[in-house]
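testing teh design pipeline on a random one, pls ignore if ur not involved
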């Protein structure tokens, strides 16, 4: 009986991990920002038709950034502000949870540049959404 219970728990754990992995792949692109380090804050209008999302993922390319304050404007006009203060290295990402699943109209954020290479003139941030 104990063995059967352990097998059931193990199978349930494997299924939960599989479902979580499948959901993790359900990121929809909302847009990209090329950051020239002259404008702060930066903003991006979200892609039309992306649908409601409850999470945002910031993928940082080419340069290290610290994303400080994030302001999300939803299609219904409501806003969500978050003091993130999160360092994201080039090639890495960070996920934030939104208060509810809604369609995003605009994303604005302030940042600090943390590039060690003098040749990096433009950073790229890709923003994705997921339910």
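output:
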């Amino acid at each position: 009986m104990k063995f059967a219970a352990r097998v059931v728990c193990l199978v349930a754990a494997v299924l939960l991990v599989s479902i979580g992995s499948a959901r993790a792949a359900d990121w929809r692109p909302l847009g990209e920002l090329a950051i020239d380090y002259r404008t702060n804050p930066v903003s991006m209008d979200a892609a039309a038709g992306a649908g409601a999302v409850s999470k945002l993922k910031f993928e940082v390319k080419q340069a290290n950034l610290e994303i400080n304050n994030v302001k999300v404007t939803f299609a219904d006009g409501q806003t969500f502000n978050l003091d993130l203060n999160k360092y994201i290295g080039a090639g890495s990402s960070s996920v934030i949870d939104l208060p509810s699943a809604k369609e995003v109209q605009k994303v604005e954020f302030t940042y600090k540049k943390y590039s060690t290479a003098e040749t990096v003139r433009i950073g790229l941030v890709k923003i994705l959404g997921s339910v």
